Amino acid sequence: MEKSLVRLPEPASAPEPRQLWAKLGRVLAHVPFADDLLAAYYCALDEKTPARARAMLFGAVAYFILPVDAIPDFVLGMGFTDDAAVIAAVIALFGRHVNDGHRARARERLRSLRADRV
After folding, report:
1. φ, ψ for residue 48 (rounded to 5)?
2. Where are the beta strands (DSSP E) in 1-118?
């Protein structure tokens, strides 16, 4: 019998925020897609976002946080290409749910993270 993908599991919870902020703070200079990553994160936290979109957005953020992925993050010049591809794919699929408010929160948090690094 073929399994149906009509009903995806709903997200149990967001990825651990401390892990996201710690990793993003360490690698901010090397992550040109940080604004999309955080906009996706804030969209996933928004309860108005449909469950399927939230699950996929949380999954993309979790993939960024995970230390083990297709291309290890420490590989010079290529380490974040798989993370960027995952974020880009999820934004392409569910970007209609990412609104100006999510993007504004992302920009503000990035400004704060950059100020903390100076």
Report:
1. -80, -20
2. none
